[in-house]
Amino acid sequence: MGARRVCTLPGDEKGGGHVSTGAMGAGPQSRLPEDERKARVALSRVGEPGGAGIAEIVAAHGAVEALERLVRGGVTVRGSVPEHYSYERLEEDLEHTERLGARVVIPGDGEWPRLLDDLPQPPLCLWVRGPADLDEVSGRSVSIVGARSATTYGTQVAADLAAGLGQRGFAIVSGAAFGIDAAAHRGALAVDACTVAVLAGGVDRLYPSSHAQLLTAIADTGAVISEQPPGVAPIGSRFLKRNRIIAAISCGTVVVEASLRSGSLNTATHATEILRPVGAVPGPITSMQSAGCHQLIREKGAVVVTDVAEVADLMGQLGLDLAPTKRGRTRPIDSLEPEDRALFEALPMRSHYDVEALSRAVGQTIRQARAGLGRLELRGLATTDGLDRWRKSR
Questions:
Q1: Domain for residue 95, yes or no?
Q2: Coil vs helix vs strand at 391
Q3: 151 partner at 20 to 30 Å CA-CA among 28, 71, 144, 301?
Q4: Over pLDDT 90: what percentage of the chain?
Q5: Domain boundaries, position 32
């Protein structure tokens, strides 16, 4: 066997992928798939999805050749276990997927969400349960995330935002967790809007189990998706990798409530890294469940959002989703010239003042006061008793 060459892939300094290449060994003699879809499914078992090493090999050589190199020993990637591959296991995964009523979506499919290609390490493939076309719905979508231990304020805001955005044609993306995630999904379902749940485990592992009914409802009308093969358990590190998909598959992310160590801040970071807009809902300054949102606004450049119109303006189409400028209630006297406003303020509500008394009260001549009172009368703001005495109109 010839000398081995070691190359470090981008991201290795962060614990990403370390690849050693050398002469092709005999390796296991298991049958290898010849099409891209099956190869990507198989690679999801060989290494943890979302890792830099396998993603780099696939980007360089395609999934079929990448799998062959890994299984036959031509290349090794830190974190990959080629011994986990078998054609029989691949067939079992595909059969299990079919029994679930799910499908495998890969890059190049019409349904593949092109927004995911902005990720440094996009998923190898996605398992999908539900009728939603992922590329179509992701083109007008918002991720709503936040604290699991949410307050009543947070869950109400999340549900209201999701429902309002759903009525405007946005799909709602979240992670099906307790608290804000669940409230966002339920808000969308309440108005028959599309919602997408991104899981940290396989699409057959409805987690948390108490949300099985919610996830089933999502799968009936929207989509439940994962980059993990069926049967894979949701563990901590997979939630963090799942967050990058939540951030990338939508047009932007809104954090409704978050403590300073909330996982939703990780989602916001992923969104910022791929240049997606991030909105944050402010809360009481005394609430630790809003401290993370305030940090995003203060230090990370998140945009304050307080209602559906502001979120749509941030995440939607330029011009189409422009939020109206917020103003206080307009009063008839707001547009008065200063002299006329002074006259109006000097007028009594019940009794009448003569013009001479009014002119003295506001420092105007009688002629100026009489002209101003005429203008106020035309606006319906002043009325006279016919004897040149005046008061405010009721």
A1: no
A2: strand
A3: 301
A4: 77
A5: 5-86
List the structure tokens of 352.
């009448």
Residues 311 and 344 in one domain: no
Residue 132 near residue 223 (C-beta atoms within 8 A) = yes
Q: What Cα–Cα distance (Å) separates residue 384 from each residue in 23, 305, 343, 347, 352?
A: 104, 49, 14, 11, 8
CATH number, domain with residue 153: 3.40.50.450
- Among 225, 201, 281, 278, CA closest to 247: 278
Q: Please report the DSSP string for 3-26 in residue order.
A: --EEEEPTTGGGT--EEEE-S---
Of residues 255 and 51, which shows the higher confidence score? Answer: 255
The answer to whether residue 94 is domain-embedded is no
User: For residue 83, what are its two tokens?
Assistant: 């011994």
Helix (H) or strand (E) holding 171: strand 171-174
Q: Are 278 and 300 contacting, i.e. CB atoms less than 8 angstroms apart?
A: yes
Using CA atoms, how far apart are residues 71 and 39, in angstroms rounded to an integer? 11
- Give the C-alpha separation, 86 to 29, whole Å: 10
Q: What is the mean pLDDT of the chain?
A: 90
Instruction: Look at the pTM and tell me if it is higher than 0.85.
Output: no
